[in-house]
Amino acid sequence: MSETHCDEGGETAGETRKPCKFLSVKEAAEFLGLRRSTLDHYRWVGGGPRYRKHGGRVKYTEPDLEAWSESRQFQDTATRVR
Question: pTM of the predicted model, to two decimals?
Answer without folding.
Answer: 0.73
